[in-house]
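Lecture notes, unit on protein representations.

Consider one protein chain, 113 amino acids long.
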Amino acid sequence: MRNAGYFILGLLVQLPSILTALVCIIIAAVRWKRHPRISLLLILSLSWITVQSLIFDAIFFFAPQWLIDQGKTSSLDTFYTVTGVTYNVMAALALALLLVAVFSLRMPSQRTV
């Protein structure tokens, strides 16, 4: 098995993004009474993105070594393709949810001519 220190290092690289998401989640929770629907969507999307990132980091780190240990090296290409597509589709859905939160319930601007 590869050195788990590399896995920890990979998590530390993501620490700024995780902390930023956590701060945004806290701000959304504080503003919940003012904008409950938007806060809910924002908290869900940021939580989804953060958890997904952590889970897929673990998958990308540990699964290839497990496949190699099982003697299934021919499956590595399929693993990376399927996992990469799955990650990106899920990230796109989470970002779409974030965009819905950002742009929902907007009032049209008043134009003066």
